[in-house]
Automatic annotation (TrEMBL):
Gene Ontology CC terms: nucleus
Subcellular location, record wording: Nucleus
Principal location class: nucleus
Transmembrane spans: none
Record-given protein name: DNA damage-binding protein 1
Length: 1113
C-alpha cells in the first residue's frame, strides 16, 4: 500500500534571519534547518522547502545582485537567488508571472555527504566588500574562496557544479580560486572578515584580512590570515593562490575569557569586537606589516564590561547573559546588541581611544539572532519562542513591535478528537499580565500566576483609564488630579517614570505609533483630544484637537484608535453620543506637532462608541466599531482619495467586544451578550465568521496531552524547573479546550516530573487517568524512582458558579525502580507500563482497589514507546527498533514474536492493526513494519518484520496520533483513502488507547520537535500511478527540483532504505511556485506520462490535487 505524506502545519523554529537587499527593497529571510522563509511586512511568511538540511547560510552582495550562500549536509555549497517576479504585481495576461521563490544559480560539492567535524560547511564567513569567502569545518580545515566580479559560474566546466538554466545570474566565483587551509589540532570558534583601511591607499583594498578565533587544548587564540591579490593576475591562477595567503599568529587571548561573538567594525579599519561569556567586550585592532612596523601585531584597544548595563536578578551572580548577535544600525558608529536572555542594548563607538557608550533599552523574549532589516526596523528571532519584527528608535530608545513571528516549537504531543487537533508547544506566548484597577496596577506572571509587582497611586488618587503597548509602557490617568502617569512594566516590577498635568480630566486614552513616534491620545471632558509623545523621560506635548461644544455632555471622547491605509494614518474618535469622527493626521517636523484634517463624521448609533482594532498595535485599514450594533469601519484609498466605509457585522445583541489575539489569521475576538461569552474569529476584510483556532497559555511548557471524551476536556501534564534547582516538578491541569479555562490543578511532589499519560479504559463508561512519572523520592537522599499514578475524573454539580464542575481524586499508585517512559491501556482491563528496560502488566484489585503487577518481561534495551492492538504489543526500544510481543491472559506471560531486522532508534510507534505498526525514529525516518506471518505460526520463528513503506521527513518526530481533522474538502475523487486497509480489521472490538477502528483511522499525524505537523494518508491502488508520475515530473522540473544537493530521492531516502511506496505532498505543492506557463508545461509532461489525452481534465486534476493538499488532514 502506498501512502501520501504532507506537511499539515509548517515548522516555525527559525534559527536565524538575514537581510537580502534586492532591486525591490530589502527582504527579510528566515532560515531553519530545512526551509527558507520570506518575511512579509504583515508578519506572514512564505515558506520555500529545500529538501535538504542547512548547516549555515550567509549573504553575498555581488555587484549585480545579492546571493544567499548555503551549505548543507550533502556537502554542497549552493548559491541561491530570490526571484521577485511576483504574480501579485504583474498583469493577469503575463503567463510568466509567479510567486516569490528561490532559484539555484550555482552549486558544487566541497565535502563528502554526512556530518564530519573536519569537513568544511559548518560556518560561512563573507567579506563585507564581497572580495572573499571562507567556509569552515568544526576543526582542522577551512576553505578560503577568492571572489572576482569578472568570473562567471560557467567557467567551471570541469567541476561538479550545476547551475540553474532558468536564471541568467552569474556568481563571481570559480572553484579554481579556492585555497584549502589545514590547522591540525585547532578548533574554529568564530571568524570575521575585517574592513580594509581605505585611507591607506588603493593597495590596501587588494588585501583581504580574515580574523579567526581558534581553540587548542582549552586555550583561545586569534589567527590573522591575509590574502593579497597578485598584480598582475597570473594566467593560470589556480596553481598560485595559496602563495598569496599569509598567516599571522596565533595571538593568545586572556585565559579567563570564553569568546562568544565577533563583529567587524566598518568605521574602524582592521578592527573587530569580541564578546565573552562574562559580558566583557574587547575592541581588537590588527596592525599589518609595513615598512615602519616590520612585525604584525594584534592590539586590545579597549576592554569594556557590560555587566553594569544589564539589570540582572540578585541570584545571577555566576551566570551572565550571553551576547548572541549584533546588528548594524543606519548610524555606522552605533550597534544593537541582543543577549540570549532577551536584553536589548545600544552600543556607540567613538574614537578608538575613547570608551564605548552602552545604553540598556528593554528586554524581549529569549533571543538567538538579531538582524537589521531597513531604517529602524530589525528582525529578532526567538530561541524556542516567538520572534518579532521591531522598530527601535535610537533617539528616544523606544522599542515598538511591528509584527510577531510565530514559533510553536517544540511540539511535544498531539491528540486528535472529534475533528479537532490539539498540540502542545513550548511557546508560552506572553511574559505577563497587567491588571489595572481603580486603586492599583498589578503585574502577574505567565498565565496569570503569582503577583510579580505592583504600583499604587498616592492616597486620594484614583485611576480612571489606562492604555499601553506590548513593550511594557503603560499610561494611566488620575482623573481628579488631571494628570497622566507613565509606568514602565519590567519582568518583575512596575516603575513610575513620569507625571504630566494635562489641565483637563481625561475621559479616555489611546496608545499607538504614528509617523514613527509612540503617541498617547488623551480624550478629555473639555471636550478635546491632546497628543502626547512618549520617550524615555516621560511625555511631551504634540498638539491638541478641540471638538467644539459638548452638546449637553455627550460629545465627549469615549474611544480613540488609529487606522491606516498605504502611507496615510487616520485618527478615529468615538464619542459618547454615538458619533464617530475621522481625522487625517500630519506631522510638522519644524514645530514637532501633529495636525488634523477632518475626513468624515458618521452617526453610528445612540450608545457610546468603542473601537476594537484588528491588531494589538499598528492596526491596519479595518477596525470594529461597537455602539448599538457591531460595525466594520474601513479606510479606503482610491486614487489618492481617502474615504471611510461602514459595514454591518451580523452578530446580534452584543454588549461588549475585545480583541483576544491578533496573532491568528483572521484575528480572534471575545464577544459578550447578555447570556453568552463567545470566542469568534472574523475575517475583517469580508465580515465572514470563520472557525477559531485556539491557543491557550498554561504558564508551564506542556509535555503530554490527552482528550477525555467523557468530560470533553483536555488533561495536560506540565513540567517546570524550579528557580535555583535543576530538578523538574510536574503538574496536572484540566483545561477547557474551547476557552482555555483551567478547572483543576494537581501538583506532584517537588522533583517529580511527568513523563507519560493515558486514559485507562477499564470497561464501558469506566475509565481512569494514568500518569507515569520520574524523580520520585520517598525521602531526601534516597535514589529516585518512577511511579504510576491513577486518578478518577468526574463531572459534579456545583451550586456555586465559582467552583469547578469537575472533581479529580487520586485512587492509587505503583512504584517502580526507574522512570515510567510509557503507559498504555491494554485488553480493556489491564495497564501496560514501560519502566527502564522492563515491561509490566498492572491490574486493579477488585476488593482493595490497589494496583497489582500480574506479569513482567525484561528486554535488552530501555523501552521508549508502546502501542497495542488486541493481545499484540509493539515495543519500541532505545536501540532496538520495534519488537512484537503477545500476551496470554491464562498463563499471564509475554511471548516474543517478531522484531525489526535493522537497528534503529524509535521515538514513537503506533499500531495500525494486529500485524502492522507505524514507527518514527529520532533521525526523522517514518516507516511501517508489517508482520508477514501470523503470530501462531512457530515454524519460522526468526522471520523479521517487512518494511512496507518508509520516508525521511527531515525532522525528529516526537509523537504519532491517529484521527481525522475536519477540513471540508472532499478527497475521494483524488484517490486518497484511509491509511488503514479493510483486511487489517482482525479485532475490531478493541478499544485500547492509540488504536482506532478502521472506519475512524483515516489519518496519522506526526509532530516534530521543530513545530511541524505532518499527515499520513493512504492512496488507492488505482490512483498511485497518477500521484507518483506528478511527483517524478516535479522532482526533475528545473523550477521545482530541490535546491540543496539537487537530488530529491537522496534526501527523502532513509539510512536503511530508499524512499519506498510514498508520495511526497510537499514536493507536489511546489507546483504553486510556478508561473502559468510553467504549470502548463508540468501538466503536459504529466499527462503524457499517464496517457491522459484530455488536457482540460488533466489541468483540473492537478489543480484539485494541489488545492486539496493545503487543507486535507
Amino acid at each position: 500500500m502506498a501512502v501520501l505524506t504532507s506537511t499539515f502545519r509548517e515548522s516555525s523554529a527559525w534559527t536565524r534571519s538575514l537581510t537580502l537587499h534586492t532591486s525591490k527593497g530589502p527582504r527579510g529571510i528566515l532560515v531553519s534547518s530545512n526551509k527558507l522563509g520570506i518575511l512579509s511586512q504583515d508578519g506572514s511568511i512564505k515558506i520555500h522547502p529545500l529538501f535538504g538540511t542547512i548547516l549555515d547560510a550567509a549573504i553575498l552582495d555581488s555587484s549585480k545582485e545579492p546571493f544567499l550562500v548555503v551549505t548543507c549536509t550533502q556537502g554542497f555549497l549552493s548559491f541561491l537567488r530570490l526571484n521577485l517576479d511576483s504574480g501579485s504585481f504583474s498583469s493577469l495576461q503575463n503567463t510568466n508571472a509567479h510567486p516569490d521563490r528561490f532559484e539555484l544559480v550555482h552549486q558544487f560539492q566541497i565535502a563528502p555527504p554526512g556530518l564530519n567535524y573536519t569537513s568544511p560547511g559548518q560556518k560561512i564567513s563573507v567579506d563585507p566588500l564581497s572580495r572573499a569567502m571562507a567556509v569552515f569545518a568544526h576543526q582542522t580545515t577551512f576553505a578560503f574562496f577568492v571572489l572576482d566580479p569578472t568570473l562567471a559560474s560557467s567557467s567551471t566546466s570541469s567541476s561538479s557544479a550545476s547551475s540553474s538554466s532558468s536564471s541568467s545570474a552569474k556568481v563571481p566565483f570559480s572553484r579554481e580560486y579556492c585555497i584549502t587551509v589545514r590547522e591540525e589540532g585547532w578548533s574554529f570558534w568564530d571568524a570575521v572578515f575585517l574592513y580594509p583601511d581605505s585611507e591607506a591607499g588603493a593597495g590596501r583594498l587588494d588585501v583581504v584580512t580574515l580574523a579567526v578565533v581558534v581553540c587548542k587544548n582549552g586555550i583561545f587564540s586569534i589567527i590573522i590570515y591575509e590574502y593579497k591579490k597578485p598584480t598582475p593576475q597570473p594566467p593560470l591562477f589556480k596553481t598560485t593562490p595559496a602563495n598569496h595567503l599569509t598567516k599571522y599568529g596565533p595571538f593568545p587571548l586572556p585565559s579567563s575569557l570564553l569568546p562568544t561573538t565577533t563583529h567587524a567594525l566598518p568605521t574602524h579599519p582592521l578592527s573587530f569586537l569580541l564578546f565573552t561569556d562574562t559580558l566583557d567586550m574587547l575592541h581588537i585592532t590588527h596592525t599589518p606589516t609595513t615598512p615602519s612596523t616590520p612585525q604584525t601585531t594584534l592590539t586590545h584597544t579597549s576592554q569594556t564590561s557590560l555587566i553594569d548595563q544589564i539589570p540582572l536578578p540578585p541570584t545571577s551572580t555566576s551566570t551572565y547573559p550571553l551576547i548572541t548577535s549584533l546588528a548594524q544600525t543606519p548610524s555606522q558608529n552605533t550597534y544593537i546588541l541582543a543577549t540570549d536572555s532577551g536584553h536589548i542594548l545600544t552600543l556607540t563607538l567613538t574614537n578608538p581611544g575613547n570608551p564605548p557608550h552602552v545604553t540598556y533599552i528593554t528586554r524581549r523574549n529569549h533571543t538567538s539572532h538579531l538582524t537589521h532589516l531597513a531604517n529602524d526596523v530589525y528582525i529578532l528571532i526567538g530561541d524556542m519562542c516567538p520572534g518579532e519584527v521591531l522598530s527601535i528608535s535610537l533617539s528616544t530608545k523606544t522599542v515598538t513591535r511591528v509584527c510577531r513571528i510565530e514559533n510553536t516549537a517544540p511540539v511535544l504531543d498531539v491528540v486528535v478528537s472529534r475533528g479537532v487537533g490539539y498540540v502542545t508547544s513550548g511557546d508560552v506566548g506572553v511574559d505577563g499580565v497587567v491588571a489595572v484597577y481603580a486603586g492599583v496596577v498589578v503585574l502577574f506572571g505567565r498565565g496569570g500566576g503569582e503577583e510579580q509587582g505592583r504600583w499604587v497611586p498616592d492616597d486620594g488618587e484614583s485611576i480612571t483609564c489606562a492604555a499601553g503597548d506590548e513593550d511594557g509602557v503603560l499610561v494611566v490617568s488620575l482623573g481628579a488630579r488631571k494628570e497622566v502617569v507613565v509606568l514602565r512594566v519590567g519582568v518583575d516590577v512596575v516603575v513610575e517614570v513620569s507625571r504630566t498635568s494635562v489641565g483637563f480630566e481625561p475621559s479616555t486614552l489611546g496608545f499607538d505609533v504614528v509617523k514613527g513616534r509612540k503617541v498617547v491620545f488623551v480624550g478629555t471632558y473639555e471636550p478635546a483630544v491632546l497628543v502626547l509623545e512618549v520617550d524615555d523621560v516621560g511625555l511631551s506635548f504634540g498638539g491638541v484637537l478641540e471638538l467644539g461644544a459638548d452638546n449637553g455632555g455627550w460629545r465627549i471622547p469615549n474611544s480613540i484608535c488609529v487606522i491606516r491605509s498605504g502611507g496615510e494614518e487616520v485618527l478615529a474618535i468615538g464619542l459618547r453620543d454615538g458619533t464617530a469622527l475621522f481625522y487625517v493626521l500630519a506631522y510638522n517636523v519644524i514645530t514637532s506637532s501633529f495636525g488634523f484634517k477632518l475626513l468624515d463624521t458618521i452617526k453610528v448609533g445612540l450608545e457610546p462608541i468603542r473601537f476594537i482594532p484588528t491588531r494589538a498595535l499598528l492596526s491596519d485599514s479595518h477596525i470594529l466599531v461597537l455602539s448599538d450594533k457591531v460595525w466594520r469601519a474601513s479606510l479606503i484609498e482610491n486614487e489618492s482619495t481617502l474615504t471611510i466605509e461602514l459595514n454591518y457585522v451580523c452578530i446580534d445583541n452584543v454588549t461588549n467586544v475585545a480583541l483576544l489575539t491578533s496573532s491568528t489569521t483572521p484575528p480572534t475576538y471575545i464577544f459578550s451578550t447578555p447570556t453568552t461569552l463567545s470566542f469568534i474569529s472574523i475575517d475583517i476584510t469580508s465580515s465572514v465568521i470563520q472557525t477559531i483556532r485556539h491557543s491557550h497559555s498554561l504558564s508551564k511548557p506542556p509535555r503530554r496531552i490527552i482528550h477525555d471524551h467523557a468530560t470533553n476536556t483536555l488533561i495536560v501534564a506540565c513540567n517546570k524547573r524550579e528557580s535555583g534547582s535543576a530538578e523538574m516538578t510536574g503538574e496536572i491541569k484540566l483545561v477547557d479546550p474551547e476557552t482555555g479555562v483551567q478547572y483543576l490543578r494537581e501538583m506532584l511532589p517537588k522533583g517529580e516530573s511527568c513523563y507519560s499519560m493515558t486514559v485507562w479504559n477499564i470497561k464501558d463508561q469506566k475509565r481512569y487517568i494514568c500518569i507515569g512519572t520520574a524523580g520520585y523520592r520517598e525521602a531526601p537522599g534516597v535514589k529516585s524512582q518512577g511511579r504510576v499514578l491513577v486518578y478518577s475524573l468526574k463531572e459534579v454539580e456545583n451550586k456555586s458558579p465559582y467552583k469547578p464542575p469537575y472533581k479529580i481524586k487520586k485512587l492509587g499508585e505503583y512504584k517502580l525502580p526507574e522512570l515510567v517512559f510509557a503507559v498504555c491501556s491494554f485488553m480493556k482491563s489491564y495497564l501496560l507500563v514501560a519502566s527502564g528496560n522492563c515491561l509490566y502488566q498492572l491490574k486493579i484489585e477488585a476488593e482493595s482497589r490497589a494496583l497489582h503487577c500480574g506479569a513482567k518481561v525484561e528486554l535488552r534495551y530501555p523501552i521508549r514507546s508502546l502501542s497495542v492492538s488486541g493481545s499484540n504489543i509493539f515495543v519500541g526500544g532505545a536501540n532496538d527498533s520495534v519488537s512484537l510481543y503477545s500476551f496470554e491472559p491464562r498463563t499471564k506471560q509475554f511471548t516474543f514474536c517478531r522484531s525489526d531486522d535493522l537497528t534503529r532508534t524509535p521515538s514513537d510507534c503506533l499500531s495500525l492493526s494486529t500485524s502492522k505498526v507505524l514507527v518514527a525514529d529520532k533521525s526523522g525516518e517514518l516507516y511501517c513494519l508489517t508482520n508477514p506471518t501470523p503470530n501462531t505460526d512457530r515454524s519460522q520463528p526468526h522471520i523479521h518484520f517487512k518494511t512496507s513503506f518508509c520516508v525521511n521527513l527531515g525532522e525528529t518526530i516526537t509523537r504519532l496520533h491517529a484521527g481525522q481533522m475536519d477540513t471540508g474538502f472532499e478527497v475521494d475523487d483524488l484517490g486518497i483513502c484511509s491509511i488503514q486497509e479493510d483486511e487489517d480489521m482482525e479485532e475490531p472490538d478493541t478499544i485500547d488507547d492509540g488504536v482506532k477502528r478502521a472506519k475512524e483511522l483515516k489519518t496519522v499525524y506526526a509532530v516534530s520537535i521543530l513545530g511541524s505537523v505532518f499527515s499520513v494518508r493512504g492512496l488507492k491502488e488505482e490512483s498511485v500511478e497518477r500521484w507518483k508520475a506528478l511527483q517524478d515530473v516535479l522532482s526533475s522540473f528545473p523550477a521545482t527540483r530541490p535546491l540543496l544537493g539537487n537530488d530529491y530521492m537522496r534526501y527523502r531516502s532513509t539510512a536503511s532504505h530508499g524512499m519506498q511506496n510514498v508520495v511526497d505532498g510537499d514536493l507536489i505543492r511546489m507546483y504553486e511556485l510556478l508561473s502559468e506557463a510553467e504549470k502548463q508545461r508540468v501538466v503536459d509532461e504529466w499527462r503524457f506520462c499517464v496517457g491522459l489525452d484530455d488536457e482540460v481534465e488533466a489541468k483540473r486534476w492537478v489543480e484539485t490535487v494541489v488545492r486539496g493538499l493545503r487543507t486535507i488532514g
